[in-house]
Design brief:
Strand content: under 5%
Number of helices: 1
Radius of gyration: 45 Å
Order of helices and strands: H
Helix content: over 70%
Distance between the termini: 153 Å
Number of strands: 0
Shape: rod-shaped
């Protein structure tokens, strides 16, 4: 009876050992999966950081572009004012030419 129970205990021990090894293997695989997810997640974080950096740069460039467009708009207004003044001067010259021609007669 002692050898039967010893043999049975040894069989249970071997079976428990196999189960423990299988569970350790599963846990190691799961740990590898978690590590891969962390690495992927960290790359996602790097990509998000780079995207945010690029967006910030685009925002700054967009702000400068907006300021430049406002300056160009002012320049267009001033050129328009100068054009109007020049047009008035040309019209005034035509009037003066008519007066000079009339005086010469």
């Amino acid at each position: 009876m002692a050898s039967a129970s010893s043999s049975s205990a040894r069989h249970l021990f071997d079976e428990s050992k196999k189960r423990l090894c299988a569970r350790v293997g599963v846990n190691v695989n799961n740990l590898g999966s978690v590590a891969r997810q962390v690495v992927r997640g960290s790359k996602t974080n790097e990509i998000m950081h780079q995207t945010l950096k690029n967006f910030t740069q685009v925002d700054v460039v967009s702000d400068y572009s907006h300021q430049n467009l406002q300056k160009m708009n002012l320049i267009i207004q001033h050129v328009g004012y100068q054009y109007d003044v020049m047009e008035d001067s040309v019209n005034h010259l035509d009037y003066l030419k008519e007066q000079v021609t009339a005086m010469e007669r």
